[in-house]
Amino acid sequence: MDMEKIITLCKSRGFVFPGSDIYDGLANTWDFGPLGVELKNNIKAAWWREFVTTNDNSVGLDGGILMNRNVWVASGHVAGFADPLMDCKACQTRTRADKLIEAHDANVNADGWTNEALEKYINDHHLTCPNCGKFAWTPIRQFNLMFATNRGVTTDTANQIFLRPETAQSEYINFANVQRSLRLKVPFGIGQIGKAFRNEITPGNFIFRTIEFEQMEHQLFCPADAAMGFYEQYKQKIWHFCTDVLGLNPEHLRFHDHEKLVFYAKAACDMEYLYPFGWGELNGTHHRGVHDLTNHQNLSKKNLMYQDPVTNAKYLPTVIESSQGVERLFLAIICDAYTEEKIADDDTRVVLKLNPNLAPYKVCVLPLQKKGLTATATKLYRDLQQHFATAYDDAGSIGKRYRRQDEIGTPFCVTVDYDTLNDQTVTIRDRDTMTQERVKIADLPAKVINILTAYNTKKNIL
Predict the structure, then answer these.
(1) 202 phi and psi angles, rounded to 5 deg
(2) Strand pairing of 390-392 and 306-307?
(3) What are the backbone dihedrals phi and psi of residue 150, each rounded to the nearest 5 degrees, phi first?
(4) The dihedral of CA 10, 15, 20, 23: what is its sign?
């Protein structure tokens, strides 16, 4: 798979545009276009159903982007959320020292090394700049990944706050509020979708790594003795979500257990997807113990203890976290769906074989010709809009219009022709098989809805 083809399709078809494009952009920022925002919303809606609406004893939250500075002191971000970066004196590019070492030797995990240890390894092995090949490094410096800003009119450390680098802390600091207001019993979960910000310096691989991104995170609060069982359950839950709900190819997914755990974690793993540039983290499932609630209770001096209504025992629940980046999942879905099919010796079509439930448009209405058919086609288009996202296209030949809809993943094209005026039937065309069928207009909404409801990625849908 060619990453450049994916990027070109995303821009030309209105999925993703470079951020601030008319001003030559801003590194690692992207805008989601008309089709991109629809696909993104469909992904988030599917996650919300899976992890909140239909997940036993789970509720939602929408926390603020700006929070009290002490939130990030308690979480450890103020003291330790930094990358070890060095500049190449020859070409002025900036490189993460730990990643340079790990690229040199895949068996080495340089995470957590001191600056001195990193510099010694780089010097001993004469690791050169991956951009220009020169060995001319500045000393390593720790760059904090949080975006700092100031609350109020004065610029000083007393008023310094941060754009949140993750959404999870909102769920921890609101644990007691949520539990007490809804009288929830442990185990229960809090899910949230929201923006986060990281001052990333490293290359982004399109939308895989960006400085502004959305996270879909679910924190399950449970008794300690049940935590490992829930950890395994949530690993299977994200696998089911990615394969059965979203339709990603299981052969492009794998779990990668963390060999080195932070001191408070009992277990952690990433689900990785095979992108065109290699395996990359798609989701993280973490057994976080009681670390987060303990730190916030200690610093805030507020009681976050849960009292069991049956035993009256008081304790801080253990947290099992499922963390998912929206943009990374968006990219995986596009990559997985992108297909080039040779349908004749000199004819290849590009088709985005999206799960129909994720597709920006479910149906596109196409009048065979404008003359005499526009009114009927327009009425059908407006009627179908009441049931699902529908597009309308009357520009160019019918073949070219089919191809345009194939490229953006529209599952069905509905053609209005002159027979429609007499018998109130239309031709419905399947995106994947190009099969065509004559259907009564009155039956069309129910037919499409039934197909979307019963969709199975391994079966033809007409």
Answers:
(1) -70, 155
(2) unpaired
(3) -125, 135
(4) positive
Beta-bridge mates of residue 189: 58, 220
DSSP state of 15: S
Strand-by-strand arrangement of the 94-96 sheet: 94-96, 82-87, 141-144
How far apart CA 219 and CA 187 sit, in angstroms, is: 10
- Read off the tokens for 442: 């009155």
> What pTM does this model have?
0.89
Model pLDDT for residues 356-384, shown as the tens digit of each residue: 999 999 999 999 999 999 999 999 999 99
Residue 404: helix, strand or coil by DSSP? helix
Three-class SS of residue 333? helix
Count CA atoms closer than 13 A to 228's CA, side-chain side.
Answer: 3
Which residues have a Cβ under 8 Å from the Cβ of 434 and sit 6 or more positions away?
343, 402
Q: What type of residue sits at position 401?
A: R
121-141 pLDDT, tens digit per residue, is: 999 999 999 999 999 999 998
Instruction: For residue 175, give the amino acid letter.
Output: F
Q: What angle do CA 43, 49, 54 make, to 5 degrees?
A: 160
